[in-house]
Structure formats: structure tokens, C-alpha cells
Amino acid sequence: MKIIRPSPELKRYTLPQLLKLRAENEGERVALREKDFGIWNEVTYAEYYANVRDFAHGLLELGYRPGEKFAVIAENIPEWVYAELAVQGLGGVSVGIYPSSVPAEVAYVMEYADVTMALVQDQEQADKLLEVKDELPRLRRIVYEDPRGMRGYDPDLFVSFEEVLELGRKHRHADPRAFEERLEAGRPDDIAHFSLTSGTTGKPKAAMLTHKNLIHMGVALQEIDPMEPGDDYLSFLPLAWIGEQMMTMGMGLTGGFAVNFPEEVATAMSDLVEIGPHLMFSPPRVWEGIQSRIWVDISESYAFNRWVYRQLMKVGYKAADYRMRGRPMPLGLRLAYAFAHAVLFRPLKDQLGFLRLRRAYTGGAALGPDVFRFFHALGVNLKQIYGQTEITGIAFVHRDGDVRYDTVGVPIPGTEVKISDEGEILARSDAVCAGYYKRDDATAELLEGGWLHSGDAGYLTDDGHLVVIDRLSDVMHTASGEMFSPQFLENKLKFSPYIKEAVVYGDQRPYLAAFINIDPQTVGKWAEDRGLAYTTYMDLSSKPEVAELIRREVEQVNADLPEGLRIRRFVLLFKLLDADDDELTRTGKVRRKFVAERYHDLVEALYGDRDEVLVKTEFKYQDGSVQRVEANVRVIDLTSSVAREEVGA
């Protein structure tokens, strides 16, 4: 058996060609696993390729034409990657759609991307397409993976995944070379996949990713952090997101490690414990959630256990400061850490599924320094990455032993970077996409002068680390002309374990103010420990005691800021900002302009003289139902002693 190792040579293949190469050389090795009814089912590279090949033949039998766009709306399941690679092997383009998308969002993506066929996971996703079918004249066939509830659906439109495979086997028997010929004709620079941008300021655009983009990313990242053929990775973030495409497709096929799919999204963390992956990639909210759960569990433990935890964590934090900067620890600290690791950190990592974890990444937003230090104290090699959809996810990453709270690392191999005169981060590499589909105007701006224009403001340190400030378009000025970055301030607020989300205002205003979402888990536990009864999130967020808790957290942030950049007033929102209410993108980014318009009365109250305002709004659910609510929201003024007395100071 010949093991294919990551190398620049792989960039001369397409993704499905690379899969075929592995099937021919490493056919008996495990490529995929999926947990079903509590059992991990293994798929070898030979079976992986056979499923891709037969599905491709089935699509040909159904009338699929090379070059057409094929959408997938599903959770992370093997059928997603089979379909994606089959379409790409036929010379087509796959399009990822978030399974949490509402019908209107699905209709926009499919019409914009000229989708002709689609794979849906189940009846729920099928019904979304039926609801908007009249808006999709190009859509000819829909393949479904889960047959439950699909018996009465139109057979001229719907066909099961198993039926397509069976059609494919018959088609392959009649025309054995139909897929192989198209597969061999593929070129690395062919468009392979459409990955949708976040759409924070408008409708999402489809970044056209080539095979070379994804393979280069996998090769370059593993030049820094090599993976072994027997390693495991758990794929649980949406495959419609560039981050998961990068890991499951780009990294998985170039590195040859096993990609594992959880039974369902809700069981991902427990399934992670069973797999014990060697590599993990998650946005900050996942790492923050894990830390919060540990805090809650420790706080519910016996007093002696809490005391031991605090003492051993002190040792861990000291060791983390040495480890993150790659400095050797003094002998005494090494011995103390070995004891702490044996008594606390190793058992804790075992419970989390982190015992075999060699490298972990976080990206998509800033992660607080306390969270970084916490995981490094446990011995988890957590590193920040930075990139965007248009550069296939990663352009910068921390190196082992050179992890810093305030930077996103240095460029990965093959990446050039510079800062424009306006302070914009520019990059170029083989990972830069071919542009935006049907958006020549936006493509020209994106790739002006042969450089990818990130739209982000930042600077390089003397030793090459990148510091990201904010989106260029989001850098604001107060009425007095003082420049500030709302994202920077929002991230500092979210470093508090009690704050889940924040939206900062102040452009052309006399001072800065903010909307704040409390974290229901940590604040809920805080309230329970103090005997504060509550029923709903709205009830919890309206408690005067909770307002006082958050006031103290905001004041701690303010203490590290210049006078002109301190938060003067804030409100605790009565609901969590939600993608279903269009307040967040599907990747969890705040739609700042939309939120400001939706809660216009609240924004004005922050800059008025009222200390309370009645807000009327709607909750929108995925099934299309709407709930209208009214709530009195208190404005907390950090400069007023009267206001402090009112919230229980």
C-alpha cells in the first residue's frame, strides 16, 4: 500500500481525481465514518470512490449535464461529500446551502446560482424546496437521502439517494467510461464549488472556488501542522461554511485522515468524546461554550474540589504562558504541571474527547485571551486562524510555540501579504478564488491589481504577525472625530463569560453605547446560585441583579479603554439575536445595519434621556410562524449614580 502524503504535487489533480488516486493506492484504509443508531459505520477509500462514481453515473442517467450547478441542503453526512465529488467529477459545480436556511434564503441561493438539481437530507428540506418551487424554473430533480415521510411525493421530481446509486450501477454497466472520461478531463483550475459569503451588508455572493484553491489550502496548512494517515477529524460544522469545506474536503483529501460524521448536530459533542479526534476546528462560540460548561460543572462540585481546581489551574496558567511562547518551563513548574496534568487536566481532557488532540483551531472571530489561556492550561494546543471565504478559509495561522492573544498568526506557506496605504489587508496565493459568480463588478474590486482585497483593516507586527482591527467599512468616528472599531469593542465585551453577543454604536454620536445579549447558560447558573428565580430568557435579562452584574463587566472593559472609547450606556436585549430573525448571518455574524433599523427606538433611547423604553418586535421561526412580543427595556447609564441605585448597586 502506497500512502499519498500532502505535497505541492497534489495541486495538479482535481478533488475527485485525488480521491481516485487514494482509492487506487489506499483502498482498504478508512476514509469516512458515520454514526447511525449508535454504531460507527466505516467507509474505506475504495467504497468512498465507488459511491461517488455510481452517484455520478446515476446523475447522468437522470439527465445531468456537465457544467450544471448542483445544490446540497443537508447536515454533515457522507452523502453530501459523495454528491459534491460526483458533480465535480462530471465537470459540474456544487453549491452548499445551510440546512438552517428558511425557504426564502434557499430560493435566493438556488436561483442566483442557476441550480438545476439538488440533494436534500429529509422531508423538512424537501418541503422548503416545494414551497419555493415556482421561483425555481431551472430545478428539474431533487434527490433525498432520508426516505421517511417521502412516500407520497411526486416521483417525477423526487428520487431517493439509493435509487440514484442503483440507476448509476445500471448506467455504468451500459457505459463504463462515461464518468471516467469526464473525471480525467478535469483540470485543477476548473470551478469546483460555490461557497456563499456571509452577507452581513447585503445578499450573499457566491465565491467560485477551484480544485486548486481547496487542495492548495490543504497542502499549505499541513506543511505547518502535518496530519498522519491514521488520524481522526470530526466534521460537525455546516459543510456550507467555507471552514468545514476547507477541513473536510481540502484537508481531508490531501491529508488522507479519517473524516467522522456525528449522528446528528445535537450529539456532536458526545460523539466527539467517542472519536477522540487528533484535529479540531471550531468558531469561538464552541470553545467558549466548552469553557462555560466546565465552569458550571466545577461550581456545582464540593467546596474541596473547587479549591483543588483553583490551585491546579494556577499552575496550568503559569505553564500556558511559557508554552504559548515556546519557552522552556523551569524545573519546578514542569514538575508541578506534571502533577496537575495527572490529577486534573488529563482526566478533564479525556471527558471532553481531547486526549488525542494535537492541534485545535479557532476562526471566524476573535477569541478572548482568558479562553486561550484556559485551554493551553489544560494542554490543548489551540491556535487562531484568519482568512475569508474568498481565500478558501485560511491565510494566517499561529505556529506551535508562537501563540499570541492579540494576533492571528503569520501567513501560511505560499501566501503573500501586504497592507495598503488605506490600511487594508491584501493577500495573494493559489487559494484565492476565481471571483464572484455573475458579479463581475464585485470581482473587479475584490481582485484589483492582482491582490485579494480583504475589506479588513489591520497591520503587521515587526516579526510578521497580523493584527486584525475591523472591517474597513465598519471603522467609525464619534461626533468629536475620535476613530473606533465597533468589532474590537464588541469582542472585548464578549470576552466576559456572561456576555454572549454585543453590538456597539457611536458613529457620529457624542459617546459609545451598546446592545448586549447575556449568555443564558452562565448567567442562568449565576442566578440560580443566588436564588434568583426566572422563567424565560426575557425574564432573566430583565432582572435588576443581572443588569448590575453586566454593568460590572462593562466597567471592567471600560477600565482598559481610553475615556473617549468607553461604553457610556447599554441595554440588555430581551431576546437573543438570531439568524432566523435576520439579525445574524448563517455564520453567526451580526447584521449591524439591520439590527439598528429593527431596534431603532432602542438606539434612540441610548442617546436620549429615557431610562426605559417599550419595544415591540417579532420572533420568526423556521416553520414560518411569527410571534409578536412587547417588552420594557431598561437603559443602563454607567455615568449616573442614580441609575446604579435603580439597578440595585
Automatic annotation (TrEMBL):
One term of GO molecular function: long-chain fatty acid-CoA ligase activity
Catalytic activity, EC: 6.2.1.3
Domain AMP-dependent synthetase/ligase: 22-437
Entry annotated with the keyword Ligase: yes
Class of enzymatic activity (EC top level): ligase
Keyword annotations of the record: Fatty acid metabolism, Ligase, Lipid metabolism
PROSITE patterns: AMP_BINDING
Protein name in the entry: Long-chain acyl-CoA synthetase
Gene source species: Oceanithermus desulfurans
